[in-house]
Amino acid sequence: MKNIIIASTSTIHGSTYLEYLLETLETFFANAKTILFIPYARPGGISHDAYTAIAQKGLSKINKTVKSIHEFENPIEAIEQAEGIFVGGGNTFVLTYQLYKNNLITPIQNAVKSGTPYLGTSAGSNICGLTIKTTNDMPIVYPPSFNALALVPFNINPHYLDPDPTSKHMGETRETRINEFHHYNTPPVIGLREGSWLHVNESSIILNGPLTARIFEHNKTPYEVNPGTQLNHLN
Amino acid sequence: MKNIIIASTSTIHGSTYLEYLLETLETFFANAKTILFIPYARPGGISHDAYTAIAQKGLSKINKTVKSIHEFENPIEAIEQAEGIFVGGGNTFVLTYQLYKNNLITPIQNAVKSGTPYLGTSAGSNICGLTIKTTNDMPIVYPPSFNALALVPFNINPHYLDPDPTSKHMGETRETRINEFHHYNTPPVIGLREGSWLHVNESSIILNGPLTARIFEHNKTPYEVNPGTQLNHLN
């Protein structure tokens, strides 16, 4: 019954919040009038209220009401009763910290298993993987674990960025970082470029959007896959 | 008695390993014939032996012998007896994990307090700060704490990178990330560009190299400081 959208980003360059996904979301959230928003990742440190207003503005274009988890007295009940869940981007460490603090890991896993549609963007997508060990974010808070929701049997690298051959900067490229990950961990990593998303539907995992994605498997040369590719064999 | 060089990077574009620092290091390590190398950060996941060979090649130009901590049976004794310490770059999480695993945090702090010169580059500089919460690295292993050596009373962001006004990438800029850090933490952060280093000499902390550094203080607008600036008031 799993039904998940794992999007690299909420916003692509030159367009408004969630705009490129709205047509897809209209179908995806067809049976949900109200979407439970999880604002914990706080992009730029903004308040939960301010972030919720952004999500509401984006989703009002497809006539959804957004209610944020911080407005509920009991966040676990909020998850259990949600018609649809949207976890927005921001800082993955802050998001993970808050999910553990509010004991929401298992409730979200159970809700998704029982069919509640889950939309994640950026940090909200990162936590769909096995761990947050392939986040690009700064570790500004210390979460009790790097283990994430494990809704898919691999890791996500959102905002995947190709190496810039003209750069004189000596910091690591994204590919170098993911290769380093594989010195200590074996799960595959999907590098999702901005504009790409995975649609998980029960046991099917399909790459969507106009771009290829880069797949990093342990002890293999990284390779590209085209939109429409079935990725459920990766684990 | 503290004597520390905190360098943004080991290597600047178009030059060899440590080359831009060698003149400085000749004076800095004047009383050390043998340098104790700490290869734990394993850049690109290379072996301790391979990394030690790179450090040896760099420092042989100023006639230093490099011995790596992984060659000692007792790493704590290695620290206590070192004439000089060099902690190389790589992954800050891997480095921090290994320092805790080998119980080296306190021995290194004590050695530095008693006057052993300490050179850090990149990850080896990051850990000189209060925490590793302003690293750029991917969290590929889970360390028991984000607390670092606290040899200086602020945090370091090595490889500091200015925002690229032409970029269409929607991932956070470095400045955005450090500002997010300050939503959850109060210590100042020094953004050290490649080619810059801090020289800590007892209570003096001076910016060196050809470039300005960017200083981020809690609840203040970030600002630039020139080479030669005394930074010991930051805390």
TrEMBL record, chains A, B:
GO cellular component: cytoplasm
Enzyme Commission designation: 3.4.13.21
Main location: cytoplasm
Stored Gene3D superfamilies: 3.40.50.880
Keyword set, alphabetical order: Cytoplasm, Dipeptidase, Hydrolase, Protease, Serine protease
GO biological process, one term: proteolysis
Keyword Hydrolase in record: yes
Reactions performed catalytically: Dipeptidase E catalyzes the hydrolysis of dipeptides Asp-|-Xaa. It does not act on peptides with N-terminal Glu, Asn or Gln, nor does it cleave isoaspartyl peptides
GO molecular function, one term: dipeptidase activity
Subcellular location: Cytoplasm
Pfam families for the chain: Peptidase_S51
InterPro entries given in the database record: Class_I_gatase-like, Peptidase_S51
Family membership noted in the UniProt record: Belongs to the peptidase S51 family.
PANTHER family per record: ALPHA-ASPARTYL DIPEPTIDASE, PROTEASE S51 ALPHA-ASPARTYL DIPEPTIDASE
Protein name: dipeptidase E
Source organism of the structure: Siansivirga zeaxanthinifaciens CC-SAMT-1
